Amino acid sequence: xxxxxxxxxxxxxxxxxxxxxxxxxxxxxxxxxxxxxxxxxxxxxxxxxxxxxxxxxxxxxxxxxxxxxxxxxxxxxxxxxxxxxxxxxxxxxxxxxxxxxxxxxxxxxxxxxxxxxxxxx
Length: 121
Prior knowledge:
mainly alpha, elongated
């Protein structure tokens, strides 16, 4: 009884098909693959995966760093809101000094309402 060749040619030892012969790699393709592998390695090192894994394994350090970043964000928001409020007040004062007909009356009404609320009933 004669065997028919499988998809990879004649059967090898143990009944498994033999893989096709690999084409010889050219020097250029080896150089290209080596360069790409070096680029990927450098990219992974730049991601600082080892430091991230170490941070996850140490919950106290993660809590401390998150706490400090929260304090920093809080101060940043407070300073930014203060500067933005001061800038908007300066612009409103300048607009009042210009004595624009519609805008000046509106701002004066807002100031009267705010002063009335501050003085209480």
